[in-house]
Amino acid sequence: MTYLSPLAYLLGIEGVALLRGIREGGADRAFVEARLTEIRALLDLPALDEEAEVITATHGTISTADVYRDWAPTYDEPGNGMIEIEQPLVRQILDGLPVGTALDAACGTGRHGAYLAELGHRVIGVDQSAEMLALAAVRLPDADLIQADLAAIPLPDDSVDTVVCGLALAHVPDLGPVLAEFARVLRPGGHLVISDAHLLLSYLRPTLPRRPGPDGRPSILTEYHRPLSAYLAAALPLGFQVRHCAEPGRPPSPTASGPLPTEMSWDLLRWCPEAASAAHDDAPVVVIWHFQLEVSGGSTSRAS
Ligand SMILES: C[S@@+](CC[C@H](N)C(=O)[O-])C[C@H]1O[C@@H](n2cnc3c(N)ncnc32)[C@H](O)[C@@H]1O
């Protein structure tokens, strides 16, 4: 059970702002005093201290399938800050890869698959969500779309040249079996491009509860945010070599103004925009990996 208090979340953001400022040098006297004044004010605000809605939520009663069933119709709408940061960097890697057969693993609505098709690849999409795949079918009429789990991809060994897996591995409890499937379906020398929500983001913007969850009570989707070493520990023994790794951050941007909420929402940051900026600006949002599978019997020395 997690006890989610808007006041506690904002005090956490103030704390991150102070710790970052101390670590990175932005915490001059005026900044520190402003944070302390704001913390006192937040603690004394009746709207937050007494009236803000506190939720007790259970982890894991809602499933990934439940979430994407609800999210599918609006997933592609503009305004997804993570996609805005991730997409140009993933495309930059895809632009440099040889054209062939590409698997969009956990393709969702086919965002990366559509780009791969534009580049001339034959595209296969795999996803466990029927609702997301139905939208991918509209966007990718010529692709083979398969409903399956990433840990059991129904494709032959050595059958694809590129695997791209966008913003999905945080849903997977164990990276090992999934990366083993990517290695199995890739031809020797094939390329694997992964993007995933960054561990740090999961602290700054913890997953919000769904209300109601499937059993009528608030529920938080269980997610698996990982340190970079976890990807390496899973990928390197399979013969993947690192070609590139990036951790793009959120560019500095003012916190949007608007009515001050008192329920759990990212809009809570409007209560303390300076601390929100100090905590979030340039903090990594996603991690992006480009791996290449070794050619059997020897290491791959260059992207080809
Ligand atoms: C955030 S969406 C990303 C969709 C797409 N890759 C993109 O970047 O726009 C995550 C997708 O992963 C899929 N997914 C999560 N766990 C999965 C699993 N174990 N096997 C197959 N698909 C999975 C979900 O159904 C969802 O479509």
Write structural notes for this entry.
The protein has 304 residues and is of the alpha/beta class. It has a single domain, classed as Rossmann fold (3-Layer(aba) Sandwich), CATH 3.40.50. 37% of the residues lie in helices and 19% in strands. It has 11 helices and 10 strands. Helix 1 packs antiparallel against helix 2, helix 1 packs across helix 11 and helix 8 crosses helix 10. One of its GO terms (molecular function) is S-adenosylmethionine-dependent methyltransferase activity. InterPro entries: Methyltransf_11, Methyltransf_Superfamily, SAM-dependent_MTases_sf. This is Methyltransferase type 11 domain-containing protein. It comes from Catellatospora bangladeshensis.
List the helices and strands and how they pair.
Elements: E1 2-4, H1 6-24, H2 29-44, H3 46-49, E2 55-59, H4 64-71, H5 81-95, E3 101-105, H6 111-118, E4 122-127, H7 130-139, E5 144-147, E6 160-166, H8 175-185, E7 186-197, H9 199-204, E8 219-220, H10 228-235, E9 240-246, H11 273-280, E10 286-293
Parallel strand pairs: 2-8, 3-4, 3-6, 4-5, 6-7
Antiparallel strand pairs: 1-2, 7-10, 9-10
The structure holds S-adenosylmethionine.
